[in-house]
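Review form for a predicted model. The reviewer records the input and the model, then writes brief findings.
Reviewer: anonymous (R2)
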Amino acid sequence: MERRFKYYEFFAGTGMARAGLGPGWRCLFANDCDELKVLAYRDNWGAEHFDARDVALVRAAELSEFADLAWASFPCQDVSQAGAKAGVGGSGGGPVTRSGAIWPFLEIIGDLADAGRHPYMIALENVVGLLSSNGGADFRAICSALGSMGYCYGAVVVDAMHFVPQSRPRVFIIALRRDVQLPPGLHGDLPAEPWHTQTLIRARAGLSQEDSAHWVWWNLGDAPEAREMELADIIDVSDNANWDTEEATDRLIGMMSDMQLQRLNNAKAQEGPIIGSLYLRMRPTGKSGNVQRAEIAFGQALGCLRTPKGGASRPRIVMVKGKRVRTRLLSAREAATLMGLAPSFVLPRTYNEAFRLIGDGVVPQVVRFVASRLLEPLALHARANAGCAAEKKALG
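Model under review:
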């Protein structure tokens, strides 16, 4: 039997999950219907096995080859704290939301389950807001759906800050077919830090008794001791970088509150250069309406990169060296490196298009970590498990 693992990649985006899974995994089917993402995926990975239709148009019968894993980084806009908070909607004709695209995906898995050839594993990736959106109802609905299809499931929260200098926590719901006996060493009786946060523990506590019976506390082991890269390795602090004019920087400083100015003064008092992030945010004035503020943060990692929605959300760099303060936009290539993408990764030519893709992806190093610690051991165990004959059935 071939040792290379096989997978479907739904909501593939630019293929960042594919980059993380690596050459030990073979993609059987990839799907996304966003035109920009389709072009970027094909530029980096080719068009083989790619389907550019809406997920609701894909049928289980079209997935003819058995997969060890179905990966789905489904849309986050409606469960993100920065989004509309409309949730995932309902299955079976409930209100339609962008994040509700998970339901057509799960219907495909359900049809595969009815035929006895559903993947050994499912990996659902999204923002941590999924755990609490709609008072936890969205998370409960997804867990219930997985259980009804014959899966046990658990979740882990992994912050990309363990791997790259960017704070980017994401929740991964990992499901395993219940006809595969749980292997020892990959799960525990209790939650464990840092993978099981208080938010996740509360979400788990909200499950029904029936759904709780299928819950697994997955064990990812110890967190990495050190990152392979730091901000100083990524951010260009030379005079050749595209720095703002002094007038533009002064204008940004003038938009800072007293608290932000104190942060800036503290940075000036240190030995430089000190690198930080700068974002423009709308804040209440305390009277009526809002005012745009420039907010800065200094540390070993930048804040979470987001998909830009106009100039206000574009990430900026602030560099302080003594009394001198310089500002500029974070470059697209710097952002790609902060996401863990290789220098050879092909980005769109325009700034906003590049950031729309970068801010909407998963860090490949996080995917690799989850795969090496959990997905690959589970796949090996499932293949060797005599009680799971799904692959043989799928192959005839």
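Findings: The mean pLDDT is 90.
Further findings: The CA atoms of residues 138 and 286 lie 34 Å apart.
Recommendation: see findings above.
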